[in-house]
Design goal:
The complex is a heterodimer of chains A (about 270) and B (about 325). Chain A has about 270 residues and is an alpha+beta fold. Chain A has helices at about 25-45, 55-60, 75-80, 95-100, 105-110, 120-125, and strands at about 1-5, 15, 65-70, 130-135, 140-145, 150-155, 170-175, 190-200, 205, 210, 215-225, 230-240, 250-260. The termini of chain B are far apart. In chain B, about 15% of the residues lie in helices and about 20% in strands. Classes of the chains: A alpha+beta (about 270), B alpha+beta (about 325).
């Protein structure tokens, strides 16, 4: 008895021979081999390594569609532009404080940098809608109507390479399968997306000039929760690490509600003042 | 193979498969978690500005009731030890502990979120028991059942008591309020999303998402006995219940006076929670004066306005409570 047993994704399938095995041990070995290999496969896909199926096909959650930010937290700092110096709750250091206290939107406009508050770490807390689609089998595209920005989540090994730093940077993504990669029982598939964004152009964490540097890394964990009434929420737990302007990582969670279509999609260009 | 052998094989494989394939989820949530006050800092730290209901989808009834509130009310004897709402931990400046209660066979009967002396424990039953009759006893911690959805524990709380659902501003919930909670732990970070509904005081679900950090020294689980004291001597033996009469709350326009926040937003209405609300503000909203041009700490909440540190040891306005930018956490004049 000879059969192909799928092993860790990305390796050449090995042949396991049961020809010389007989009886219960052979049956048990076969079943266990299948159990472990299935687990390995799911785990490997969860790690985002190359696999027989592309990330689009193995997605444990569906993030696509239109989502709207519910500004139920930090309203004064997110929905409107706060005054200069109004930067509580972001663990900035004194160097950042000096920069924030010198914030001048007119200067940003003159420099053509009115999108400084629309870089990924600041943008996600903005009053925005998201439109998430698959660009191809390996790339998830996130667009915002607030500031008309586009970020690409690239599954598999991603290196910024020689790309120029940008507002949305370079986002490497992977699926994290629930249950340590072995999936759930009963056919349900659960998990989340983990992304790390680097290669960012320096910008603002808050619209009133609270800075982050080009050395920032932006880690996000994306969950989708479906309620009993069918409502869906996308929760973006995120950690901003900036060795230049933060004393400690800035850790928040941002939630979005799914909308049935793009009827309220309202693209607006970057605005340094409002 | 004879039948006995086959049966043994099936049993062996079954037992082994149960061992190697974990049930969906079942993440160990046990531990102490420390708050990270990087969201809604003012409310969670020094204390919210009165009359600030931004971010809340209040009904007219909810708003009217909130405006009757004065912070003297919880200072009355009979209210000093009242446990707070089950969902208020999302607005509290303290951490909590999570532990499990197990059956004799080691299976988890319930997850418990506790360790906060100002509210009841939330006991999330995992054994499949049904919610009791609507007429059953309501508790401050409510009655909760949970299930794993992948690595997320989802709980539903019912049978709650009427309580203030945010900290220090009087926003009410009725005893028919319900809360859905999603708890997702990743290494040392715990994200909790709560979705609260109320048929009387909320016009749509109130959604909050927070992150907590596992820390074995993050919180004490002690629940000291609450002792009442005479906090407002002038009220002693008067029988007065502190309140504002309808239309007489002097802080109703505080957010307009201070931060140019439009009244409909300050008073909490659902339409102000969504990006399209900005269309009504564009061209009208005026940037408030710089914080530095006003009194020190003006943007940082009332405690700093009064010249004290930000409400707790080493807690400052801009560091979420974890930096020490100066003596006792307060920036010095030269650092400003």
């Amino acid at each position: 008895m000879t059969m192909k047993v799928p092993t860790r994704v990305g390796r050449v399938p090995r042949r396991v021979s049961f020809a010389s095995s007989r009886g219960p041990a052979a049956v048990a070995t076969l079943v266990l081999a299948l159990l472990f290999s299935a687990g390995d496969q799911a785990q490997a896909q969860g790690r985002g390594t190359a696999g027989p199926q592309p990330p689009r096909a193995t997605a444990p959650i569906d993030m696509t569609g239109y989502w709207v930010a519910i500004i139920s937290e930090d309203w004064r700092w997110r929905m409107i532009t706060p005054s200069r110096g109004d930067f509580p709750s972001i663990p900035i250091n004194l160097a950042a404080q000096k920069i924030a206290e010198a914030w001048d939107p007119a200067r940003d406009e003159a420099a053509g940098e009115q999108c400084k508050a629309y870089g990924a770490p600041g943008l996600m807390r903005g009053p925005t809608r998201l439109h998430i689609t698959w660009l191809d089998d390996d790339t998830l595209k996130l667009e915002t109507d607030y500031g008309m920005q586009t970020r690409l989540f690239e599954f598999g090994a991603t290196s910024p390479g020689t790309a120029k730093p940008s507002w949305q940077g370079t986002s490497a993504a992977r699926w994290v399968m629930a249950g340590g990669g072995r999936g759930g029982r009963g056919g349900a598939r659960y998990g989340s997306m983990n992304s790390i964004t680097t290669n960012l152009r320096s910008g603002y964490l808050r619209k009133n000039g609270v800075p982050y540097s080009e050395k920032t890394s932006f880690t996000e964990y994306w969950d989708v929760h479906t309620e009993g009434n069918g409502d869906q929420y996308l929760v973006d737990t995120n950690v901003v690490n900036d060795p230049v302007y933060l004393q400690l990582p800035w850790i928040t969670a941002i939630h979005f509600k799914k909308e049935k279509d793009g009827g309220k999609w309202n693209p607006e260009p970057c605005d340094a003042r409002f | 193979m004879n039948r006995v052998t086959v049966a043994r094989v099936v049993m062996m494989v079954g037992a082994l498969s149960a061992a190697v394939v974990p049930a969906s989820g079942q993440v160990d949530l046990t531990g102490s978690y420390q708050t990270r006050m990087y969201e809604d800092y003012i409310e969670r730290g020094p204390g919210e500005f009165m009359g600030n209901y931004t971010g809340m989808p209040l009904t007219n009834d909810g708003r009217a009731k909130a405006l009757l509130y004065t912070s003297n009310l919880p200072s009355t004897y009979e209210r000093q030890c009242l446990p707070q709402s089950a969902g208020v931990f999302q607005y509290r400046p303290v951490g909590f502990r999570i532990w499990s209660e197990t059956a004799d066979d080691g299976s988890v009967l319930a997850w418990v979120i506790g360790g906060d002396n100002l509210r009841n424990d939330i006991r999330i039953w995992m054994d499949g028991r049904p919610h009791p009759s609507p007429n059953a006893l309501h508790l401050a911690g409510g009655f909760a059942t949970g299930k794993w959805e992948g690595d997320t524990l989802t709980a539903r709380l019912t049978h709650l008591k009427t309580a203030w659902i945010r900290r220090g501003v009087g926003i009410p919930a009725s005893d028919l309020t319900t809360i859905t909670m999603h708890l997702t732990r990743r290494e040392d970070l715990l994200t909790i999303t709560t979705i609260q509904e109320d048929p009387y005081y909320l016009s749509e679900p109130h959604v909050v998402s927070r992150v907590w950090q596992w820390n074995p020294r993050g919180t004490a689980a002690d629940r000291p006995i609450c002792n009442t004291a005479n906090e407002i001597p002038s009220l002693e033996d008067t029988g007065i219940v502190p309140h504002y009469l309808p239309g007489q709350n002097p802080e109703e326009d505080y957010m307009i006076r201070t931060f140019n926040v439009p009244k409909e937003a300050a008073m909490g209405s659902a339409e102000t929670l969504y990006p399209e609300y900005r269309k009504t503000l564009k061209g009208i909203y005026k940037l408030p004066a710089d914080c530095l041009e006003r009194a020190p700490g003006y943007c940082c909440g009332w405690i700093e306005t009064q010249g004290r540190p930000g409400g707790a040891p080493n807690l400052t306005c801009n560091d979420g409570g974890f930096g020490t930018l100066g003596p006792r956490g307060r920036r010095t004049a030269t650092e400003r």
